[in-house]
Amino acid sequence: MQRLVSLILFVVVWWIAALFAGPQMLPGPERVLGVIIAQTRTGDLFFQVGVTLLRVFFAFTLAMVAGTMIGLLMGRVKLADRIGDPWLIVLLNLPALVIIVLAFIWGGLTEIAGVLAVAINKLPNTVVTVREGARALDPSLDEMAQVFALPRWKALRHVVLPQLAPYVAAAARSGLSLVWKIVLIVELLGRPNGVGFEIGVAFQLFDVTLILAYALTFVVVILLIETLLVQPIERRASRWRIRAA
Amino acid sequence: MNDARPVGESGRLEVRIARKAFTAASGERLEVLHDVVFSLGQSEVGALVGPSGCGKTTMLRVIAGLDSDFEGAIVRPPTGRLGMVFQEPRLLPWRTVEDNVRLVAPDIAEAALTALFEVLELTAHRAHYPGELSLGLARRVALARAFAVDPLLLLLDEPFVSLDEALAARLREQLAALVDTRAMTTLLVTHDLEEAVRLADRVFLLSPRPAGILAEIALATPRRARSEAEIAGLMADVANRLNGRQS
To answer: Are A147 and B82 an interchain contact pair (Cβ–Cβ within 8 Å)?
Structure first.
């Protein structure tokens, strides 16, 4: 209920601000909605949002899988941590823009270069989070697995990964929003389609309505993914926890 | 007894720990175990009894193969044929009771599992998660897990500590029933004389740190046939020996 009131308040503030700023600088909600409907009719919106979503999906999956493996290794093996840590610090502090530009220069203006650039941007963040989780693994459960001679993959699946799950979930949550923001920059700089490309075009035409139409649509899509996909998965993964009454 | 094990897969346990030491935070070496030598034959139940903090858990960890930093040698059944009940239940909180047991014993027959849960009175809790169990129940699940692998050697580290006496007695009964129906060598670590005297064929008394074996007492009467008077007598005997050595 409070959420709904807050949302309505947001639209009202937007509407009042639009009255003062004028439709050139800040078009009102009704204008943006009109453009969203028009763009949906032509099918343009679906196509651009779909292309961007695909890039988000591949970059996100790549960063999460690779990041979890590297983070687990660095959290468990001291040598790997010592060798990997300086690389991690370099990667963490490299601006996203630098990684994207270099990826396009070295890899050409290709789909693979673009997706890789996004994944590399997200990777260090996942590694750091999962490494924390790997350092906090319960040694007494490791001993249990050792005494009962659990095969390696079984111990990983049933003993280690469930302990890492909250850390992976945290990395995924922050990752989804980070990845889609960076995908937009990649599209702006070096792809011929997608939400980022469209926003670039709208920027050149000073079409604020179009910019807001695409941005809002994508925010809604990400929210839907979060509610319909990420949250149910998290609930399922933590069903063993006793819920607070 | 239904002992149908292939030749060479023996449950015999031989322990010979000459020395086991830790390096303390100050850098000084602390000797925890010194000249611990004993053995258990196939299907025997041994109890290690000693004062709290004398190094019993360390000894069990060495015997289980969790700690290989010691001088000496251990002869134990091959890995995979070891069942262990830790002092804490050490169950996976994200797996149900049944899955916790099945995880370590994937090949267990449905009938055997059902029978095991029956004996330990866990049938109603198969689908529960460990977080929903009391400590006593969780301890029983840990026992079920150790028995499910059909071990040649069973190690128990104070399995009934901090339970109320009535429950501990019931669980002791259940443990005795399980041990009697199987051909497994069992080593029990405890500070509870009664537990040792009720369950064991042989009791090993440990000295304070660095722990060594003070005395070995063989209990001739089978545990099922021991009368209350006999148990009381044995307990007094063991207590006397412990105190005699300590004073």
So the answer is: yes
Calculate how close chain A gets to B106, using CA atoms only, in Å.
10
CATH code for the domain in which residue B241 is found: 3.40.50.300
Domain hosting residue A172, numbered range: 45-237
DSSP percent split of chain B into helix, strand, coil, nearest 5: 40, 25, 40
B71 contact A CB<8A: no
Q: Do B66 and A150 touch (CB under 8 A)?
A: no
Per-residue model confidence as pLDDT tens for chain B (247 residues): 334 444 456 778 888 888 888 888 887 888 888 888 888 888 888 999 887 777 888 888 888 888 888 888 888 877 668 889 998 899 999 999 999 999 998 888 899 899 889 888 889 999 999 988 888 889 889 989 998 988 888 999 988 887 778 878 888 888 888 888 888 889 999 888 888 888 888 888 888 877 788 778 888 777 777 777 777 887 787 777 777 654 4
How many CB pairs below 8 Å do chains A and B form together? 46
A243 — phi, psi (to 5°)?
-75, 140
The verdict on A244 touching B (C-beta cutoff 8 Å) is no
| Residue B21: CA count within 13 A, CB half-sphere | 11
Give the structural domain span for B209: 13-81+151-246
In total, how many domains does chain A have?
1
Asked if B76 contacts B218 with a C-beta cutoff of 8 angstroms, the reply is no
Q: Flag whether B226 is in a domain.
A: yes
| Amino acid at the residue B30 | L
Taking chain A, what is the end-to-end CA distance rounded to the nearest angstrom? 21
Handedness of CA B205, B207, B210, B213 (dihedral sign): negative
* pTM of the predicted protein model: 0.78
Taking the Cβ of residue B82 and every Cβ of chain A, the question of whether any pair is shorter than 8 Å is answered with yes
